Amino acid sequence: MLSARAWLGRVLLLPRAGAGLAASRRGSSSRDKDRSATVSSSSVPMPAGGKGSRPSSTPQRVPNRLIHEKSPYLLQHAYNPVDWYPWGQEAFDKARKENKPIFLSVGYSTCHWCHMMEEESFQNEEIGRLLSEDFVSVKVDREERPDVDKVYMTFVQATSSGGGWPMNVWLTPNLQPFVGGTYFPPEDGLTRVGFRTVLLRIREQWKQNKNALLENSQRVTTALLARSEISVGDRQLPPSAATMNSRCFQQLDEGYDEEYGGFAEAPKFPTPVILSFLFSYWLSHRLTQDGSRAQQMALHTLKMMANGGIRDHVGQGFHRYSTDRQWHVPHFEKMLYDQAQLAVAYSQAFQISGDEFYSDVAKDILQYVTRSLSHRSGGFYSAEDADSPPERGMRPKEGAYYVWTVKEVQQLLPEPVLGATEPLTSGQLFMKHYGLTEAGNISPSQDPKGELQGQNVLTVRYSLELTAARFGLDVEAVRTLLNTGLEKLFQARKHRPKPHLDSKMLAAWNGLMVSGYAVTGAVLGQDRLINYATNGAKFLKRHMFDVASGRLMRTCYTGSGGTVEHSNPPCWGFLEDYAFVVRGLLDLYEASQESAWLEWALRLQDTQDRLFWDSQGGGYFCSEAELGAGLPLRLKDDQDGAEPSANSVSAHNLLRLHGFTGHKDWMDKCICLLTAFSERMRRVPVALPEMVRALSAQQQTLKQIVICGDRQAKDTKALVQCVHSVYIPNKVLILADGDPSSFLSRQLPFLSTLRRLEDQATAYVCENQACSMPITDPCELRKLLHP
Fold first, then answer.
1. Which of 107, 275, 430, 660 is most buried when burial is the number of CB atoms within 10 A of its CB?
2. What are phi and psi of 771, to 5 degrees?
3. Is the pTM of this model over 0.90?
4. Backbone phi, psi, residue 201, to 5°
């Protein structure tokens, strides 16, 4: 079979590429897969999918039909001289009627290389004419339509040496792909084929060799169908959790960076699913050397990340990834899903270690989200861009909003520091601690365009104790001076042009953020944070849930005056929307003990089962059958990456729901799902750490921790807070208020047999349908939960 990659290489008469060009520092992120992806199907290396923003609308031009869309990404292309169509039947009908190939371009609004290609190629009049006359050009926001993105990314990754965004794929009128790639420069270079050349050659081949193209496309699609199948098959049960745990840990251990933490050289991603696995592994192996090692790996990684430049020390929150192994120079975009998952990871690190360093980082993350990514009605925005103009009217540059020169810091912090062993200003102390230098602390190799010369990324170089000792100062005095300096830089930064905000709101990421606030608020005992989680859940129910059908909507948008708008027709939810929202609601119930959230979670799980469950092969499809009609593949996501796989999260949800209700059907579904993914887990368990964690939970015994008491009573709250202070991933926390007609009492009849001891709030720890002796003392409960 002639692959698409080989075919395009032949068409373009290009030699096979070897190592090829390195991707730009900012452009090698595949957010789904957490790996660099740089090569197009033509075998010519292409930088891929970093993020940024360029002014893309030219008001004097006539807008195209994308002007009627809600997606910020599509609107960024609304003034291109291209006859763009959104994904839909109108475009498909035109392609079939006119017998033209479809050019599909997929990206997202804060994608740097998407904007580069928009600026270089899609604003080009000649290229626009080629796209409009010889192709049916379709633009897709991958965050609106993850199903379209996953299907064609599967093709691009299978027929080239990588994937990323922008993703550009050519399809037959029947939506079958025949060639694809990532970023193309507009014109040919020494080692790279230009986009205009690609269009001309594909146009020629479509006219002369269309039948061969169609046959090859069908063969590739058939091969991908077989390759992507995930099914129970002849297996009766999932694999051994002990074996999968051990193999996953060993694979992580082999790739661990001893000095800086993390699990790769560069680029280096946070990957919270790996940290979550390591914490769970530690808990079940804490008396072993491997268990201690797992804990050390996770805690050290979190500490190095928090001290590095990947963390925004001035404005809080975390950037997307580090371009080096030291966590020093980041790719500067900020994603909601990273903040959500990292808040949970740092909260768990605090539970395990007791070190307030980690709880402070978790609170900082949520402070950033509250300030910068929150809609006034309770929802959460998607992202902030990497690029912004250094000054108003200037061309955007990556990191301009976040980096500093020595001169700027000296001017902002000129005050002398009293009591130091040498003449010292606040600025000099600040620059020493955060590693600023006159020449800038960014290596030229990380700044190929020279945009960051003389600039510095703040990164903690010394502990407070070392900085204090260096200048003969008290540690608390240094802490105060540094915090004052950060606040002054924060106020000064407000006057810079801000990065673009993607104000689109996604149900899935909002679900993750509900978990972030709920878990952190519960662990730290902060009702204020739990209230933010509650407001987020209310937003989801009010604005992203259709009561009549019981379905979630995928997206909503910020309208004029801060209103909430929807596309028409609405974009319905995908599997990840249901899975992440259900997780968020279960976390919110355990944090607030408000059973209404648990009831809604059960209803959403029923809807998820109805829309996505594969009754023949087991597991969940990523999209509804009807919504994905016409796509050549219906996939089940099989990788935990920047976000966990929705199937991995669903496995956990099913276990927890079984614990809350006793409904056997959900346990059966969980076992069936894990069995369907057996082969994937056996082959590369490190690709599914969250699912391996679910496998372990299913094969261990889930704890039902029941607190009998009044929700608002102090003694009840003391027992609840005791439970939240201990790291117990494989448990459900249930409040039994003594009302036999309550939702949980109807689900779990055994609750009626549990009594308060001497009219005090009383805890029971139940496993395998047997409960402990009643406990009223939080200290005794803690001993039982964490022997």
1. 107
2. -115, 150
3. yes
4. -70, -40
